[in-house]
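Hemerythrin-like domain-containing protein: structure tokens wanted.
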Amino acid sequence: MSLVHNCIIRSFNSIYQQARYVKSSEYKDFVSYAYTCYQALEAHHHGEEKFAFPEIEKATGRKGLMEVNVAQHEAFYGGFNKWGEYLSSLSKGDASQISVERFVGMMDAFLEPLSVHLNDEIGTLLTLVEFGDQLDLEGIIAKETEQIMAKMNKTTEMPVFMLNHDLTYESGLHTNFPPLPAFIKFFLMRVCPTVHYNWWKFATCDMSGRPKALYRAG
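Answer:
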């Protein structure tokens, strides 16, 4: 879960840090990148609320155990979804009409509660160790990940995670993320992103999974 959160943090940092420096000729690609990051995070939280959290509560017998996490989702959903609606309108219409200040201002409205949530949730999950063998947390998270990945668009949402996961993190300890056969991972990292190649220049890692300098930054 922490690796998923790291991908989310890296992707949203890349959006925020580059927004004011993107050239007008790149607005369409940048908006598409930002919108697909929005969709990827939305899919992740939907998977938690519809599968992972209920399964955790079922296994532990503690109804409401994960309510604090749901409440944290709701704390940033308002601003987050307004930003998503703005991105949707730009992607379907004329991306050149973007107001960068409005774009950044809308992010400011939800980034702090989102950051709090992404950090706090890991702590919440760690406390579940008290349930021992009663709770197969690893199995639940793996199943949630499998379900989400099966539904994600392989040329839009999946590259958000594949190209914002730093394979050099902690000395390359997490090269098995996501847990997929090598040929599938190669397809997702090297082939699928070529469909919308210009979007992923704004991502934080290249197609080999190594960090790269931000394409547009001050």
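Residues 187 and 193 are 9 Å apart (CA to CA). The mean pLDDT is 94.

Cheers.
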